[in-house]
């Protein structure tokens, strides 16, 4: 790659690319077949937004954040509060030898708050973070979150954790709020359905996948109950991986990954589509090629991977009411996964004991563990569209040299039966 656009510089890197390709072919001979793609000679796309975050004076942003911190510090035992807003605006231009010219402006925004409570004797501290999520939107997203108005409520949760009893380890029903479940989806559905991981081309950074080989799992592997539906997409409003075209000039689309509880497809690029087309019947790319910047080699990166809400219009209260003895988990926390995304452990931010279909008391030191297929097959109840929520990671890393992208995962509130719970204290 080069930033120098002279004829000689471009010719030199072209010759270098050919030399590298020949050397690779001497070591591992192969034939690359690129999936067909339509040509877009004059394409434009801009992240849907109302307010460009870079038009908001930094003084106004700082005033909002200081007000958020001030409101949080009003709560007893709250000693620290920090907040921030990270805004990204990318201008990307793609020109392919096939004739596509694609101009895109991508926007993302990441508000964050971290509130810490300390016990009066200084013997314990608890925090509340992950209260809001990044989004592929403009500053109107921040304005709609009402951060200052909600700060005291989040601070009260941090303070309540100081006196909350530790969880009793064992089997519990588990109600996962979307603010927690999205990260589980990212780690044990999103990553293992990357085709390069499944085939072993990506291994050193964060492992491979238990969903392999393709011929044995596509259309056969039961990942959950019949009502479980997952789709990959680069089209979802507000998604951090949402775009108009990928970095191979493939237009954004949505496609099923898990249909009626059965695994049916991976995430693919133009190079990868032919590897599994005999099993999927699909000979086109799903548009998952991405390079972090001009010097990064585009390769397969995760799109938005989202779990669809249930057909019944069940509310959060309805799902909790279906739980006799369980734990409600809100907010993302710590996590641990093995090299194939098979064994999992996840924490959270706030934990509520459920008794007889109602929230009873706050708990602490909770983590749930399991194996990915058994975990998803224990899913019993999911909320309707009104419970759907989009979580996101601003920094999903992959590859060597490491590249970072942003990605979102939507899901409804969900009830899992008989999950192993450990006490992390």
Q: Which key phrases capture this entry?
A:
425 residues, alpha+beta, 3 domains, nine-stranded mixed β-sheet, 10 helices, 23% helix
Brief write-up:
The chain is α+β, with helices and mostly antiparallel strands and 425 residues long. It contains ten helices and 21 strands.
Number of domains: 3
Structural class comes to alpha+beta
Residues in helices, as a percent range:
10-25%
Summed over residues and divided by their number, the pLDDT gives a mean of 97
Radius of gyration: 23 Å
Strand coverage percent = 25-35%
Taking the alpha carbons of the first and last residues, their distance comes to: 49 Å
Largest sheet: 9 strands, mixed
The global form is globular
Total beta strand runs: 21
Number of helical stretches of at least 4 residues: 10
Poorly predicted tracts of residues? none
Description:
This protein is of the alpha+beta class and 425 residues long. It folds into three domains: 1-30; 43-163, no CATH class; 170-423, no CATH class. It has ten helices and 21 strands. Strands 5, 12, 13, 14, 15, 16, 17, 18 and 21 form a nine-stranded mixed β-sheet that branches. Strands 1, 2, 3 and 4 form a four-stranded mixed β-sheet that branches. The termini are far apart.
Give a topology summary:
Elements: H1 7-27, E1 43-46, H2 58-72, E2 78-95, E3 101-118, E4 125-128, H3 140-144, H4 147-163, E5 170-176, H5 178-190, H6 195-198, H7 214-217, E6 230-233, E7 254-259, E8 262-263, H8 273-280, E9 289-290, E10 299-300, E11 304-307, H9 316-321, E12 325-330, E13 335-337, E14 343-346, E15 350-355, E16 358-363, E17 366-371, H10 372-377, E18 379-382, E19 389-398, E20 403-411, E21 414-423
Parallel strand pairs: 1-3, 5-12
Antiparallel strand pairs: 2-3, 3-4, 5-21, 6-7, 6-11, 7-8, 9-10, 12-15, 13-14, 14-17, 15-16, 17-21, 18-21, 19-20
Helix pairs in contact: 2-4
